[in-house]
Amino acid sequence: MSSYTLKNKQDVEDFIRGVTFMGTGGGGDPKLGLDFLVKALEEGYKLSWVDISEINEEEWVAMPFYMGSIAPISEENLKKLKEMGLGEPTVERPLIKAVQELEKYKQIKLGALIAGELGGSNTPAPLDTAARLNKVFIDGDFAGRAIPELTQATPCVKNKSICPLVMCDLWGNVNIIESAINFGMVEEYGRSIVMVTNQMTGNIGFLMKVKELK
Question: How does pLDDT run across 15-47, given as a tens digit for each residue?
């Protein structure tokens, strides 16, 4: 397979620097992305990506991404969370749970994952997820830079549905948006779910076969 592997911390740092630069000011916190990949490397996971031409066209692929804030929980918000029965976060990597929940919901097995955009954490996070779940990570993304809204992702241009969209928060609460009349509504529903805890959610959508992705 035509692939590239990040073999050491220097490789990871160079990768983070590159996707952050190409993100042109968006795409998430590079410190978070660096933390994800350095830990994965230290824990023995293989961080690599593969050209789409090398992947079986019948494999299922989807786009995992984070939505919401990564800021520390404020005292005021912590009080609100405790009132809802939420203590310290229990899910370290909600993207992983989101992938697993999508597979369970659709009764399929994803063969590959792809990043939605270039950026400091929104490219490394799906790579980390793919490595930990032993899935292929595709050399490519849906924007070529960071984008502020889902509606700017290239599958939207081809009218590919993002639904079902699975959202998992830091406490393991799972929401599935099965269908929506347009991409804007998906964005609004997603952000309303994020607002419940004011913390990030791990999400996955744009489920399709590799042959559709091409």
Answer: 999 999 998 878 888 999 999 999 999 999 999
**Domain count within the chain:** 1
- Of 63-77, 120-134, 159-173, 181-195, the one with minimum mean pLDDT is 63-77
* CATH code of the domain in which 84 resides: 3.40.1610.10
pTM more than 0.70 = yes
- Of 121, 128, 114, 180, which Cα lies nearest the Cα of 151? 180
Q: By residue range, what is the domain housing residue 142?
A: 3-213
